[in-house]
Amino acid sequence: MNLHWSEESADDAAPRVPDDIADLNFRITCRLLPADHMWALYRALSQALPWLDDEPRAAVHSIHGAESGNGWERPQSGSDEIHLSRRARLCLRLPRERFADARELQGALLDVGGYQVRVGAANVRPLSSETTLFSRHLAAPAGGESAFLEQAAAQLAGAGVSASRMMGGRGHVIRTPDREIAVCSLMVSGLAFGDAIRLQQRGLGGEQKLGCGIFLPHKGIDAVA
User: 65-118: per-residue pLDDT in tens?
Assistant: First the structure.
């Protein structure tokens, strides 16, 4: 009896995360930063990396402290500063062809709003295959949580992304010299694998160099709800 069959290995069957865009994580030496540090951080980075302003696919993550709840809810201590642990990282989401350029930050001393940040070695962290994602900051319209979720749903639909569940978090403000950006955190779940990758690669909304609309994996919306 002649038999023939073909079996996919687990590796062949699993969806593969593309590597054309990923996070470049830098070790940093810094004990304190302003809680509202995104504008100062971006200006310091753009001075050190002159190409950053003109790179449309670049995004700058906010640096969060040990008590940030993985960034889902902003600490409500009332302090104007955040305390950083040794595990805190400076993270840029970049196209792969910019990794070598960005590594020029290694060894740099950045002035972030009067606070000194020494930048150390970098490693690449691929995007996640998780289908529950959250963004620490997404620009929010006036009108409260309902208006925010309606806007987020419209933005997701415009990007061709379908999420079965969404949940907004606490809001705060990112300040620049000439404006204030009201933001809220957003969690989305029930994403298809391709949509989750697309959302991480492209982000949502604007102001990604100020930490907005950047999506990260989360363990699940039920744990937060």
Answer: 765 444 444 444 445 889 999 999 999 999 999 999 999 999 999 999 999 999
| Contact (Cβ atoms closer than 8 angstroms) between residue 83 and residue 63 | no
Which residues lie below 8 Å from residue 8, measured CB to CB, with a gap of 6+?
none
Residue 193 lies in a domain: yes
Residue 210 lies in a domain: yes
Its domain, for residue 64, covers 21-125
- For the entire predicted model, the pTM comes to 0.86
**Residues 118, 25 within the same domain:** yes
CA 95 to chain centre: 14
Burial state string for 121-141 with b = 16 or more CB within 10 A and e = fewer than 16: ebeeeebbebbbbbbbbbbbe
Distance of CA 90 to the CA centre of its chain: 11
Does residue 151 share a domain with residue 109? no
Are 144 and 54 contacting, i.e. CB atoms less than 8 angstroms apart?
Answer: no
Q: Which of 83, 105, 125 is the last residue of a domain?
A: 125
